[in-house]
Amino acid sequence: MTNVTQPPLPAGAESPVATAPEFDARGAFEAWARLLKVLLPGLCAMCVRDGDGRRIWASADWSVDETTAGSVAAAATEPAATLSATGEFPAAMQVVNADVAVYAFALPRGQGWHGVVMLALAPTGSPSGPRALRYVQSLVAPALACWRVEWSLRTALGERATAAAAAVVDAQARIAPPEDPEDADAGDAGEADEIDRWLRRTMHRAGATLAALWVPERKLARTLTPSGQPLAPLALQRAEQHLLAWVRLQQRTIVVNRIAPTATADAAPYKILASPVRHRSGRVLGALALFNPPSAADFPPAAVAAIEAAARRLSTLIDAEHDARTGLLTDVAFGRAAQRVFATGAPLGAHSLLYLDVDRMRAINEAFGMPAGDAAIVAVAACLRATLPADALCGRLSGDRLAAFLPNTNVDAALANAERVRSAFAARGGAATLSPTVSIGVASVVDAAEPLAYALAAAEEACKSAKALGGNRVAPAAARAPDSHAGNAALARLLRRALATGEPHLIAQPILPLRGSYGGALFEVLLRLPNERGEPLAARKVLPVARTCGLMKAVDRWVVGGVCALLGTHARQVGEQRACFTVNLDGESLLDDSFVEWVKERLAAECVPRGALGFEIAEVIAARYPDATRRCIEGLRGSGCRFALDGFGAGAGTLGILRELAVDALKIDGTIVRDAIDEPRSAAMLKAIAQLATMMRLRTIALHVESDALRSRVADLGVDYGQGFAVARAVPLRELLGDLALFEASVDPRPGKAGPL
């Protein structure tokens, strides 16, 4: 069994600062292959994949195609995978053809995987067929146990070495050259340009003439020259392939200061400084590289410090712009990336957009648990990455709502791409009879005031049409003339005008107890934006446009400032009634470092009674930004603010978030509450959440209580408070504050639970 040759290190490669212990990874794999060959005489080929399923080594005679190999490796890491006698190594087997059977063994690491070892065995010649999986497991289990121990030790040593090297690099960075003077002019630029600013800054500090950033699994490829212009995508293709292979294999910074006399495929005609860009787990995602002509000075140690500091900062930026579960762009980053495409000057009509929604998500969550729903979303994301063109932008808008922006792709080509995604996802099947499927809407981007928002709206309508027809299908958006989007364009202009000149139109919906005695009242404050005719528009119509336009931070401050002003004006009544008014917060506000101090200033300036202002944070947002959510809660709790976790139980987050976040109440998602009468599973979930909240001394609030029968049922299941038409309708906040005593709420007199928040 011969071995695949890895790309040779470029001529003159050095490593002034090692970021992981140096060892011969290829030699280690070859040694294990020799041992397994002794244990399994029929072994004819071998492959090793990392914890995310990517191939990192294979013998030269490994001939199994990637689709089949990936399927077997994925099966080995499924919860239902066959375990060995010791219960340590989940495994799977598949007969490829009459000549070979593939066996995959997963090596566990904490909550994840070190990797998957795949073995191709020749047939035994027995009429009974290939060797049984458990038989092969029993032969290789001792070797796998030793391999896992070695992998664990190397991982631990690598993490310690990385931390030590980072401390050295930080110390070196303090004496690095000053920042690029051009950065002062770019200081007010948006976050969309921050990656380019770091490339420019690093290039200046290291004295380089070209910078490049490659992160393939995030579909991120940026180049920058001193003039600020990028290179053509194929200009550094060879360097990209070799440098990515080497930073992944070497796990360290590579310096090429000695140039070979003749340029070849293995020795490039320029000096190179390349550093790995890592995931927060330490796994290499890509590479940051700097280039100089042969006549330039060698890259000094200070340049190494600069590029490694930049690589760490870029890793943080990339993590912040990508959803932790799926690896797709967040909704905000998705909008920014699309705007960068628009800025290239290509006609808007040349682009297309896909909107994806997993079918029967609630049924999947109820039948198999919320982890199954999350797994379906992750699987759709994987199909998007594997199926769509390399320049496609893929994002997770919220929950199970995904989108893909296809630059320079007409609707016909976009429909074909969407069908490939749908087919790939449907072909995966499921672990039970309820196999997940996905519906996809396709729309063209039109020339309008807010092109992305309108394309998303059109694609979403098409997706709903596909669902109405039974799901698991692709539907194009209805043909529209560009001027048919005038309503949405007017809405964007109306919102900007209101933010600049007017005060928010706010309504408040009472949240009342389902049982108990009288006490302080609780209200949720909602935004209504009057249109040109004075008719109020619901937040669900306004906020998607605000989010697409990057206005959510401004909208949140607009609403919070308006609430504080009204609470200050009616401070005496609010204080006497011990009332609390909650405002919904978007993820953009949580990520805004100045938001907490700004709220404290407004509370003091308006003399808002302590405990009168609260905030609601959606579970999906809290799960996506746990650190930012924790900082916001801790920063404002001292000012008397209370917090509720909104939409709890929808499946986007985990129960572990309750342990991490000091919230006061859980607002149970309406999709669970609405079915509590007719669906036993929904009722059981509702009761379980209420019991858990009671043990954790948290209040529970049921959303969408729309009938008297549902109100009684929810109360019987142990929920404390209700919100909906059957409880109380929303009224203008200014009017409500004038008659606040009429809304005095009933609360449970149990010790330690004196009010809803």
Brief summary of the model shown:
The chain is of the alpha+beta class. It is built from 25 helices and 29 strands.
SSE order and pairing:
Layout (H helix, E strand, L loop, with lengths): L12 E2 L10 H15 L3 E8 L4 E4 L7 H11 L14 E7 L2 E10 L2 E10 L11 H41 L8 H4 L8 H13 L3 E6 L4 E5 L12 H14 L3 E3 L14 E8 L5 E9 L8 H20 L8 E2 H12 L9 E7 L2 H8 L1 H18 L5 E6 L2 E6 L4 H18 L9 E7 L6 H18 L5 E3 L9 H16 L3 E9 L3 E3 L2 E9 L5 E3 H10 L3 H18 L1 H7 L2 E6 L1 H4 L4 H11 L7 E6 H6 L1 H12 L4 E7 L7 H5 L4 E4 L1 H4 L6 H16 L3 E4 L5 H9 L4 E2 L8 E2 H6 L6 E3 L10
Parallel strand pairs: 12-14, 16-17, 20-22, 22-23, 23-24, 24-25, 25-26, 26-27
Antiparallel strand pairs: 1-9, 2-3, 2-6, 4-5, 5-6, 7-8, 7-11, 9-10, 10-11, 13-15, 13-16, 14-15, 18-20, 18-27, 18-28, 19-29, 20-21
Q: Helix fraction? A: 40-55%
| Structural class computed from helices and strand pairing | alpha+beta
CATH level 1 name of the largest domain: Alpha Beta
- Binned strand content: 15-25%
Spans where pLDDT lies below 50 across 5 or more residues = 2-9, 14-23, 171-192, 263-267, 481-486, 745-754
Per DSSP E runs of 2 or more residues, the count of β-strands stands at 29
Give average pLDDT, whole number. 78
How would you characterize the largest beta sheet?
Answer: 8 strands, mixed, barrel
Radius of gyration, rounded?
29 Å
- What topology, given as strand order, has the largest sheet? 18-20-22-23-24-25-26-27
The N- to C-terminal Cα distance equals 67 Å
Work out the count of structural domains. 4
